[in-house]
Amino acid sequence: MKISTFPLGALQTNCFVVEKNEQAVIIDPGGDASILVNYFAKRNVEVQAILLTHAHFDHIGAVDEVSEYFKAPIYVHKHEVDWLRLPEKNGSGVFPGIPEIRIKREAIMIDGEQELTIGEFTFELYETPGHSPGSVSYYLPEENTIISGDVLFRGGVGRTDLFGGDHDTLMDSIHDKMLQLPDETIVKNGHGPDTTIGEEKETNPFINGFGW
């Protein structure tokens, strides 16, 4: 399995492309759809789905264009389906210089924690709310990797001052879901470099202050 990272859009949000046996899923295409189109133009790979960790503007900016181009379904948690069409919730109508984003294509609702199988891929899907109410994380145990959006960063945690955010809920998600994974688990997050669960237990001041 191959996992590639593409920082996209105005905030250089990490988009991840997961590939296996000439199939792929795209996670959080936040902008610059042409970069993804050009990447796949050079590869004999079929895109199976667009997966969203959550529906903030910087994670969904290229969803319509990418989904339409690859004829791939969109998956988002049920708590944030309406965010795709509502700038006041996805944040695109809040920040200066960020145009409103209203996703036109229909999405498939994620409802509850589950094994999510799409083509060649099976993700263990965890609900990890707090940064937003419908934040989810996609765990690939055979790759020792979790793709977690804006839940846990190297040396930090997700902000909770946007619509629907809640700091206590976020810390519960980190404590009850993320920190229960093996220490060697690689955390591929929405902004900045990868980290590991073990590294964050040792060095992250938000986690150390939370009793670890």
UniProtKB/TrEMBL annotation:
Essential cofactor(s): Zn(2+)
SMART domains xref list: Lactamase_B
Region (Disordered): 190-212
The Metallo-beta-lactamase domain, residue ranges: 12-191
Alphabetical list of Pfam families matching this protein: Lactamase_B
Record carries keyword Hydrolase: yes
The entry's keywords: Hydrolase, Metal-binding, Zinc
Alphabetized GO MF terms: hydrolase activity; metal ion binding
Keyword Hydrolase among UniProt keywords: yes
InterPro entries for this protein: MBL_Glyoxalase_II (IPR051453), Metallo-B-lactamas (IPR001279), RibonucZ/Hydroxyglut_hydro (IPR036866)
The protein's name in its UniProt record: MBL fold metallo-hydrolase
Lineage start: Bacteria, Bacillati, Bacillota, Bacilli, Bacillales
